[in-house]
Amino acid sequence: MHNREYAYNGIFSYFIEEERVFVVEWSNLEVPDEQEEGFQSFQLLLFDPEFYVTPTGDGEILFQYHEFNAVPGEGQCYATVGIRNLDGSGGLQYAYRNQYPPQAVPLRNGTALKFTTTVRNPTGAVRGRVVRTEAPDSGISGAVIDPFYADPETTDAEGWFRFEDLRAANYDHVTITAAGFNPAATAFQVVPGEELVLDPVALTHPVLFIPEQDRELNLDLAPDGHRTRAAVRVQNTGNGPLTFEAEIRYHNGEYPEYDTLMTMHLTPIIDVDRLRCFGVEYIDSLFYITGRSSSGDFELNPQIFVIDFSGEIVRNFRQPTPINDDEAYMKGLTWDGEKLWSAYESFEGDRRLVAFDLEGTLLDTIPYPFDDCHNFAVTYSPQRRSLFVADRGTDILELDMEGNVLNRFEIHFPRREANLSGLGWNPYDIEGMPLYIIDSYHEERGNARPTLLKMDPETGAWRVVKVLHRSAERTKGYYGIAMVHNHDLERSYLAIIEGLGLWRDADDRLRIHEIGPNISFMVPGSFVNQTGEVAPRFSLPTGFEIDATGLPQDDYTWSYRISHNGAGEAAVVPVTLTVSNDAGFEEEPRVARDFNLKGAFPNPFNRTVKITFDLDRSQPVKLRVFDLSGREAALLLDETPAAGVHNVIWDASGMPSGLYLLQLEASGKVSSAKVVLMK
Fold first, then answer.
1. Which helix (H) or strand (E) holds 270?
2. Could you tell me if 11 and 51 lie in one domain?
3. pTM above the 0.85 mark?
4. Is the CB of residue 27 less than 8 Å from the CB of residue 11?
5. What is the pLDDT of residue 219?
6. Cβ 172 vs Cβ 149: under 8 Å
7. Residues with Cβ < 8 Å from 419, sequence gap 6 or more?
8. In 116-158, at which residue ranges do the beta strands (DSSP E only) sit?
9. Domain boundary among 89, 115, 141
10. Residues 6 or more apart in contact with residue 229 via CB below 8 angstroms
């Protein structure tokens, strides 16, 4: 079953029109007994009697139990199961207070109970074959034919299938699926006592093809403001539509597991007993941590501690607050490029958001947006120029820099309130979910479990990324998120505070988790065609734009993993970016004076051709190929490149020999050139 912690609970009803079934669902409901023995999840299905014909004309009823719990005993939960009419004058009982007649099977997980007046339905048979579109005499083995109202059948080695004793009815939504093929649909009517022979069902199939020059990318870029695009051409050489999704992985294709790569024990580093920390930020290779001690030593309480990546304390300074109160301390921490932001709460209950510089000078205050200050979390978005804030049991608020509420986002979990204790902003998230969230859910015995979420603030959509590993049983909370880029050429990190113990024995840690390859050179929002559909004999580029300005000179690596609906495994394209001051000296000049399709080389060509064009300014561009009949044969480019000289490789290995017209279109202008493919 799904993870119960993030499953919705309640009673729901809906109508499945194509199956003509009305469903009432009791989902994930807690058994109401003192022992809290379990949960119930089951459905009541009412079948349309005009389609599911019975001898009496009565509709059939089906109870099906996904999760069944009945606790016997006096005063405990029990199960009484059956049906009766509205006035209670008649019915049929299957179980009473967990007692079953000898002929009945006790209910349990996965059981179903059907009420019907039909002893046996009239049936017929259906036979058919699934074949390839390009080779109608070639059957497809292992195709699944699903008629919705009966169990599916699978084709044999020659593509044949047969339904025996299929209930007489109209089957309007029969689906045919096979691995590596595009799905199809058909319909048929089963006549009692007869066998229906269907016409062959032909399936198309997509084929993913990555051009040879795109199977491994090696890019050179100077850290001087120029940009380039790390793009992979996704081609479809099959005869059916290809759908794909591009993900960012490590250079070897491995997926980030969000593992804990390093833990800093803060008490011996800072040399303060019973240290409790509530916020962390990463600025210029240093961690800034809000902390206070519960030992009574107010000489170092409360402070901002500055720690380097090796675990050495660099300095510390007094937390700046608007009032002189030694018991006022800060929670949450974020950096807007000029100021640190945090929230403080005084002993008298005064709460505000405060801004201060890296030396501890108070610069600004704005109103605190919540009634209480428990696990206050805050992060700054440079793209939106706003603050995101949250606390235990609250929505996430987006504030302008004066404290006005711009947006409100809800995080809902079944049977409990959200305990949001950390927020971070990752502009390089390729899913378009840059708002990272830590939920510190407290399990039994009060121990906290960290769950990483992320959200798209444009839509409010969010998802669970991973339940993070808990390092100790006495963890009481997780606070703050610091995004770490460019410390490691290979990885980016997420740092959070792990609060261990109660105030009297507080012993906090700084945990650093991997979140994926370091792609901090990606221009935010520049990832094109992360998902897409490619028609047969067409192609689409996928990838993002790179800006290496200010990057250390070195090699940066990642890969694109391109999953697809065609046959075979996902394609992995390793990418290496070399940032060097020497990059580009032997390349063509980057400055173009006009809009021009300069031509193609070689021409004529045998398989691949290099097409060069100039852009006098950045603008939307389409580069297309047409055959002699005027039909579009390929879309080579559909994006907005920077001004300059650009090269595009067309792999025409799947095209017939002949004359083709290249057409470059931008801002209402068109430039054309002819190429000849000779095989």
1. helix 266-270
2. yes
3. no
4. yes
5. 92
6. no
7. 375, 392, 393, 439, 440, 441, 442, 448
8. 123-132, 144-146, 153-154
9. 115
10. 526, 543, 544, 545, 546, 639, 641
Residue 130 domain boundaries: 123-203
pLDDT of residue 5: 43
Q: Rounded distance, CA 279 to CA 509, Å? A: 12
Report yes or no: 622 and 638 within 8 Å, Cβ to Cβ. Answer: yes
Q: Which helix (H) or strand (E) holds 341?
A: strand 340-345
Based on the domain organization, do 130 and 154 belong to the same domain?
yes
Cα separation, 212 vs 636, whole angstroms: 15
| pLDDT bucket at 31, cuts 50 / 70 / 90 | low
For 209-252, the pLDDT digits (tens) are: 998 889 999 999 888 878 888 999 999 999 999 999 999 999 99
Query: Buried b vs exposed e over 276-314: b needs ≥16 C-beta within 10 Å?
Result: bbbbbbbeeeebbbbbbbbeeeeebbbbbbbbebeeeee
**C-alpha to C-alpha distance for 365 and 356, rounded to whole angstroms:** 9
* pLDDT (0 to 100) of residue 274: 76
Q: How many domains does the chain have?
A: 3
For 625-665, write each residue's pLDDT tens digit: 988 877 888 888 888 887 777 888 888 877 888 888 888 88
| Residue 456, token pair as written in the block | 């798209």
| In-domain check, residue 301 | no
pLDDT tens-digit readout, 165-191: 888 888 988 999 999 999 999 999 999
Average pLDDT rounded to a whole number, residues 138-147: 96
DSSP code string of 93-124: EEEBTTB--TTSPPP-TT-EEEE-S-SS--EE
pLDDT digits 0-9 by tens, 345-402? 877 778 889 999 999 999 999 999 998 888 899 999 999 999 999 998 899 999 999 9
What kind and span of H or E run contains 449?
Answer: strand 448-456
Q: What's the pLDDT at 3? A: 41
Q: Name the token pair of 553.
A: 């000179």
Closest CA to 384 of 397, 394, 373, 368: 397
Task: Give me the pLDDT at residue 519, please.
Answer: 93
Spatial neighbors of 189 by CB under 8 A, at least 6 apart, are 169, 170, 171, 196
Residues 465 and 480 sit within 8 Å (Cβ to Cβ): no
Judgement on whether residues 192 and 162 belong to the same structural domain of the protein: yes
Q: Both 129 and 83 in a single domain?
A: no
- C-alpha 120/C-alpha 88 separation (Å) is 28
Residue 454: strand, helix, or coil: strand
Looking up residue 615, the CATH number of its domain turns out to be: 2.60.40.1930
